[in-house]
Amino acid sequence: MQNIDVREILKDKKNIFEIGLQIWADNPPANTPETIWNSMVYSMKVGGKRLRPVLCLASAELFGVSNGDVMPMALALEMVHTASLIHDDLPAMDDDDLRRGKPTNHVVYGEAMAILAGDALLCHAFEYPMVHLNLPPERIIAAISCFAKALGPYGMCGGQVWDMEGKESPENISALKTGQLIRASVVTGAILAGATVEDQNKIDLYGSALGTAFQIADDILDVIGTEEQMGKSIGKDQSQGKRTFVSVYGLDGARTLLNKYTDLGISHLSGFGDKASFLIALSKYLEHRTM
Amino acid sequence: MQNIDVREILKDKKNIFEIGLQIWADNPPANTPETIWNSMVYSMKVGGKRLRPVLCLASAELFGVSNGDVMPMALALEMVHTASLIHDDLPAMDDDDLRRGKPTNHVVYGEAMAILAGDALLCHAFEYPMVHLNLPPERIIAAISCFAKALGPYGMCGGQVWDMEGKESPENISALKTGQLIRASVVTGAILAGATVEDQNKIDLYGSALGTAFQIADDILDVIGTEEQMGKSIGKDQSQGKRTFVSVYGLDGARTLLNKYTDLGISHLSGFGDKASFLIALSKYLEHRTM
């Protein structure tokens, strides 16, 4: 594998995404009420790792399609992630006042607007790529179908329910709650770039394992991280008695699993050679954050 | 125009839709948490006029495509309408305990689940037609794009914001809040049925006028209707000081406008002859409910 500077590429990709985000934010569609747009943009611009869009850009690039060509999909992935955070933070859900070190959406804009801004981001996330992607229609339908499946009752929203109920295993909860959208981030990139079904499947297996690894790392950091590092309230899972990888397997057990899922994900990329260097390095980087 | 029994056709179309709904409800996708599916199905089955799906089925039929072929789109229209009602009824929004004579979603399933069930219905509404429509991909992309535009920041969600803020004219508020989805109901039907762009435009103009007429009728019924007739709390707009057609133009003024928009809508269907009989009769039927 090529020796690459993952932080540098991550920064570059994030910067490319931030440019796309800024162009989107500066161009509200005609007839959009200013307040809802401001509320949507506020949460989209609060920041974060931009992991999902970066994964989509990197996956498309692996199959030879440029970042610009899949930017509408990358933006859509961040829109639904942001929508889920806005709704998660509501008083009726996790009741969080702080997200990435800034006041949460409902603290700034009120609860009713936060509900509507989340709804609007969800809907806009389907419109935006469908209108702005300039690729063959079959690829667009396949990508948006994959995206939509990752979000609904047996995707992200269903995972939130299992997370609340705390009965399922951490593997099952995280597969829906976080895993599906991370998986969709790389798979939509591959689909839009015209990858073969065989290659899409490899990327799918990589994404599924990465999604689990990501959730394990998040659970570990909720215990060992600082609020500054995480940009959100920490120790919350524990105080809410949630079933996390750490609460079920202990810190050492979770670290062992994290290593297992990281390696499993990487194993599915072996056929792509140097072209997969960044995705491989990114998986290792996410693992090492917890050490 | 043909002399038709609008109530009879309306009942038939509604029955056809209810069959599609039941099949959907009985077949949750694998890996769906039971509680979120129950919560989604509860609100989908509470009932109502099923106006949006009926409009979609009727519009497709006008262009020679059968009800079954567009059923996934009809279901999607009802899903987003239902999602908007679930979120509207939340304590942070309109705080309603009763919808169509039954306890609202959050009263039965709790606020957190109601937020997630609404989110899941929104996302599922994009997946379901994309996966289940068996029509040319260009039509599907065009229909889903039209659908998505009707919902987001300059559609239904944006309209809710203008409704809360109470500064815009009733025409502007209703064009987004109710109008866009009603418009999309007939336009998606026409697009999926392969109507020419010229015919899509006529249907679009019909749908826009019908959407405004529908909101005017709703505002009138909020004042003169009974709770039993409406199946929801009435007099609420007035007590919340909302800008409705009645509060701005008075009851007589609103009735005049209702007549104007009903006739305007119908005028755009003149080129379709007898095939448009049901849509024309439906417009008149909705107007006469308020007399």
Automatic annotation (TrEMBL), chains A, B:
Cofactor annotation: Mg(2+)
Matching Gene3D superfamilies: Farnesyl Diphosphate Synthase
InterPro entries given in the database record: Isoprenoid_synthase_dom_sf, Polyprenyl_synt, Polyprenyl_synt_CS, Prenyl_diphosphate_synthase
Keyword Metal-binding (UniProt): yes
GO cellular component, as recorded: cytoplasm
UniProt xrefs under Pfam families: polyprenyl_synt
GO biological process, one term: terpenoid biosynthetic process
Record keywords: Isoprene biosynthesis, Magnesium, Metal-binding, Transferase
Gene Ontology molecular function, alphabetical: metal ion binding; prenyltransferase activity
Family: Belongs to the FPP/GGPP synthase family.
Listed name of the protein: Geranylgeranyl diphosphate synthase, type II
Organism of origin: Dethiosulfovibrio salsuginis
